[in-house]
Specification:
single chain, Beta-Lactamase, 10 helices, about 60% helix
Length: about 450
């Protein structure tokens, strides 16, 4: 018990003791003054109790209770104020939390948007990387094709190279390439790859049936071609045609079609145009090289090899014969009385005769033989791996064919044509190409001296 409460109770006990003592004294006094008067005692006793008890009760009970009530009311007011302050702080804090939550939601939405943007950017970057890889692969294949075409020696070799590279360059497409014929009256398929439907894709067609050639640019074969004349005869026409053009001249056309009827990929027109340009440039260069080479080794009048090519070939064949212990035959001949022939019929008729003779030689020799125009009306025929007797027989056969040759110029027959032939062989008659030509030439003059239209064999060394 607290000290203040001890003092209160002690005071209360003292007062009670005093009241009892005073009441006892009063009662004694009443018994002395007026013995036997009970009512007076009761009245005095009640009055005394009221005088002492009521203040005591107020002081010791009601007043502490009032103070306790006041204290509790004050505590309740303070508690209410604290609750009000707490509610205010809670509301304020709730408002702050709501604002922070709204801000956080905005930030989360911003982060989500940023993530979506980042994902889209990443997807675009991945697509760009994939496209870059695809373009890099296409560039690599284009470079490889260009390198291969640059080292090709003939157009046939170039066609094989294009047929090899085409499936790598256009893996999702089947393709074919058409080139103009020498007469330029039609185009013929020179190569193809993939599963092109046989019987529906023409192997030869006229130029006016190709819209790409007529338009001079890439042509997509879709509904536009339906009902129109086209070299592509598919009932379901899909694909592209790209003209192969170099220096303003059309060389052919490149045709590409999807491998499957339901194929969903689109054609890379830029790649197709680039490939077509490279192919056109390479083929044009090859044709130019072949033309220059033909002009350098072929005689323009007769179409057979010229003297320069003959000398190089003869030297090469003699080296090969020396290694392999073979013989090389050489026929040298010219037309009898050719000067008189020119004087009689004219130089145009003489040129016509030489052209016919060149054609005769092309059709009369083996694949390994080499026919050359030595100069004027003189010709040389190189016969690899041919001994003397076989060379002589070949010379006789050739002389007979020349004798039977009939040349018509401007509707006029040019008469009987004869030739004198000299035969020499390596190593029996000479050990070098120059020496073999000289011995065959001497044999030729010997045939002329003996009456022409005959064959003479060179003298042994």
């Amino acid at each position: 018990m607290k000290p203040s409460k001890k003092i209160v109770w002690r005071s209360f006990l003292i007062i009670v003791f005093i009241i009892i003592l005073v009441e006892a004294l009063i009662m004694i006094l009443f018994h002395i003054v007026s013995p036997g008067n009970v009512m007076l005692e009761i009245f005095a006793d009640a009055t005394l109790l009221a005088l002492f008890l009521i203040p005591s009760l107020y002081y010791f009970m009601l007043r502490p209770m009032e103070q306790e009530i006041n204290i509790r009311e004050q505590a309740e007011r303070e508690l209410q104020e604290a609750n009000d302050q707490a509610e205010i702080r809670i509301k304020q804090r709730t408002s702050e939390l709501e604002a922070a939550n709204a801000k956080l939601e905005v930030e989360v939405a911003g982060h989500q948007q940023a993530e979506m943007t980042l994902q889209k950017t990443n997807d675009k970057l991945n697509a760009s990387v994939a496209e870059l890889k695809q373009r890099s692969s296409e560039t690599r294949v284009l470079t490889e094709m260009s390198d291969l075409l640059q080292v090709c020696a003939t157009t046939e070799e170039a066609y094989r190279a294009i047929g090899h590279i085409g499936p790598q360059l256009f893996p999702d497409s089947a393709g074919a390439m058409y080139m103009y014929s020498p007469s330029r009256d039609d185009l013929e398929q020179v190569l193809s790859w993939g599963s092109l439907p046989q019987g529906q894709i023409a192997r030869i067609f006229e130029p006016n049936k190709c819209w790409a050639l007529r338009r001079g640019r890439l042509h997509t074969i879709e509904g536009l071609c339906e009902g129109l004349v086209c070299h592509n005869n598919l009932s379901e026409q899909v694909g592209v045609c790209i003209p192969i053009t170099a220096q303003g001249e059309s060389l052919g056309v490149l045709y590409l079609r999807k491998k499957g009827a339901d194929a969903s990929h689109s054609f890379n027109e830029q790649l197709a145009n680039t490939a077509s340009e490279q192919i056109a440039l390479a083929l044009a260069n090859l044709r130019l090289r072949e033309t220059l080479r033909s002009q350098s080794i072929l005689d323009p009048l007769t179409g057979i090899y010229n003297r320069r090519f003959m000398e190089e070939t003869l030297a090469r064949e003699i080296r090969r014969a020396e290694r392999n212990q073979h013989e090389v035959g050489l026929l040298m001949f010219d037309l009898d009385h050719f000067k008189k022939f020119n004087d009689t019929f004219g130089h145009e008729a003489g040129d016509a005769l030489l052209r016919e003779l060149g054609l005769l030689l092309k059709n009369s020799i083996r694949g390994s033989d080499v026919a050359c125009r030595f100069g004027g009306e003189e010709f040389v025929l190189i016969l690899p791996e041919t001994p003397v007797e076989d060379s002589r027989k070949r010379a006789e056969e050739l002389r007979e064919k020349i004798h039977q040759l009939t040349v018509i110029h401007r509707g006029q027959a040019l008469g009987i044509i004869t030739a004198s032939l000299g035969v020499g062989t390596y190593p029996k008659h000479a050990l070098t190409g120059e020496g073999l030509i000289q011995t065959a030439d001497k044999a030729l003059y010997q045939a002329k001296a003996e009456g022409r239209d005959r064959v003479a064999i060179a003298k042994e060394v």
